[in-house]
Amino acid sequence: MGAFKMRGATNAILNLSEEKKAKGVVTHSSGNFAQALSLAAKSLDVPAYIVMPDSASEVKKSAVRTYEGKITECPSTLQDREATANKIQKETGATFVHPSNDLDVILGQGTAAIELLQDYPDLDYIICPVGGGGLIAGTALTVKHFGNNCKCIGAEPIEVDDAWRSLQSGKIETNETANTIADGLKTQLGDKNFPIILENVDEIIRVSEEEIKAALKLIWERMKIVVEPSSAVPLAAIIKEKHRFQNKRIGIIISGGNVDLSKLPF
Question: Which parts of the chain are coiled coil (predicted)?
Fold first, then answer.
């Protein structure tokens, strides 16, 4: 389904009892996790109920339907998403699976970094984007337990730098605006992933919108990889601080390629 979130969604469903699987799973997501939970559920013959904001792109809604997720649309506020998911939960008995603030999801996301370290055990850094915090929490746990003097660094748009501010303050911060091309990174940290991030992530590097666009173009043009803007954020961070990372062995988590081809910035 084009993103790392398939790992977390699959792990979360596999850890449910047979009784819970029969009743299905529910989540709220505007994009990648909606697709991930739908496809993981379809693969495991489990019903999936997906709450999507009415502002979500038709491309993403179409993908969810292809994976047989049952979509319920609602207004795009977090309160509306949560209320709609709660209603479905009560009506169906489905288990709620949070896109990033769920321990089974976090551990599933961490498997990407495990495979990276298996192939390249002597990395100095693993850098990944920060959105809702599931990927970086899983990556940070992997680096801590399987890395060899490796450090985990997050990369985040300046326009949505709530995780960077959260590391500074020691509490979960929010964003008043979310004006970034990296639409997958607009969500905020949660009470389960933030303590993991606070303890195990060395730092977060912030990048501008222009730096993200330049890195995105470089990946498409030179590496011939279709990635979404959120995936380019870690490379943008490395380029921004290239003198610091010179001669270091660096792994980058490329988080997804579900890009709307009609809205490319180049």
Answer: none
Of the candidates 32, 153, 178, 44, the residue with the CA atom closest to the CA atom of residue 99: 32
Tell me the whole-structure pTM to 2 decimals.
Answer: 0.94
Q: What domains lie within the chain, and their CATH numbers? A: 5-99 (3.40.50.1100), 105-263 (3.40.50.1100)
3-state SS assignment for residue 205: strand
Identify whether 30 is a catalytic site residue: yes
Mean pLDDT by 10 residues, the chain (266 residues): 94 98 95 94 98 85 94 90 96 97 98 97 97 97 97 97 97 91 90 98 98 98 96 98 96 91 86
Catalytic, out of 5, 60, 186, 213: 5
Q: Strand pairing partners for 207?
A: 157
Letter string b/e over residues 133-150, b meaning 16 or more CB atoms within 10 A of that residue's CB: bbbbbbbbbbbeeebeeb
Place of tokens 């911060």: 173
Catalytic position from the list 17, 23, 30, 242: 30
